[in-house]
């Protein structure tokens, strides 16, 4: 049997936010930028109201979308089981924010609380001109819109940080035997300073592992700690051409504000493509996709990026009855991964028998078994300290 890989450095390092397997991405932005339309395009059974006026979404809508993966499809083709269960990304469509939301403007603080409840953010930015689709500020200016959302999120976090700090300091004053550690003041002072200057906490500073742990303990509800993906909604024409007058300015803004992943896409294009597929118009679908010169729909990439930003992964179970993806947090140990199937499996864990997806495909001859994998010496037994890898079977 080949030597085992050293997985000690692959264990999950301290990180902001919850470490769970049921995390959610929230769709955030100003009113009328395409949030609910994107939600409906991505969701497997989504039906959020999408209208041309601000605040058509009030209560957050939730759905899920399957994560596209050729590996999962290949396993289903080999085993042909009656039950198939892919990995899912969970989505929340959150109503539009406007300037002053942190002070109650628009539908204000309630919606900021909805953002606090998710684990990552798709920030939708409008980068198209249209007389038919109104803008809450009447003019199209993506940089201003990015400033507005960032400022509102930072103001909400600042109020939260100050309240948490005040509560801790009051507790100390009430009890003479209590004393706040130096790390408390180091972390809280820096967070307060950053937020006062409209700098998101996750991007404006290289936090040490101990500081990350302290932040998770003291202020876990901060919105600007969440991973963020910028989704730039362009017109169909711009998307087909591969750019417009706004994209370079948006990229520069993102680079100047701590960087981040930005994905240009087009609601207009994706809705047309979806309508053609629903109507069974194969020729129309092909003609539309041909305009992209091989690029294809951007929606699968958005889903994969959201899943990755949440630091989720999955392993497979495969057999004649079912092929299934089991979502776990990156860095999960073998007992933790087993517990996703059933809590008793984690409590009574003895060993894990597995192989990598790549090894399975390399030696499998199309048979519905692990015989060839075992014969090739690729079938492994792992103990409690094993860090499960993405794509393990």
Structure report:
- The protein is an alpha/beta fold.
- It has helices at 35-42, 70-79, 108-116, 142-174, 182-196, 209-218, 236-241, 247-256, 267-278, 282-290, 299-309, 334-341, 343-347, 357-363, 371-375; strands spanning 24-28, 61-66, 83-85, 88-93, 120-126, 228-233, 261-265, 312-318, 322-329, 352-354, 380-382.
- The protein has a six-stranded mixed sheet with strand order 2-4-1-5-6-7, with helices on both faces. The chain has a three-stranded mixed sheet with strand order 3-9-8, sandwiched between helices.
Describe the structure concisely for a colleague.
The protein is α/β, with parallel strands linked by helices and 393 residues long. Helices cover 40% and strands 15% of the residues.
Strand element count: 11
Number of helices: 15
**What helical percentage do the residues reach?**
40-55%
Distance between the termini: 18 Å
Low-confidence parts, pLDDT < 50 over ≥5 residues? Answer: 1-12, 46-57
Give the strand content. Answer: 15-25%
Order of helices and strands: EHEHEEHEHHHEHHEHHHEEHHEHHE
Q: How would you sum up the global shape?
A: flat
Radius of gyration: 24 Å
| Arithmetic mean pLDDT | 88
Structural class, by secondary structure, is alpha/beta
Q: Which sequence of strands runs across the widest sheet? A: 2-4-1-5-6-7
Described by strand count, sense and barrel closure, the largest sheet is: 6 strands, mixed
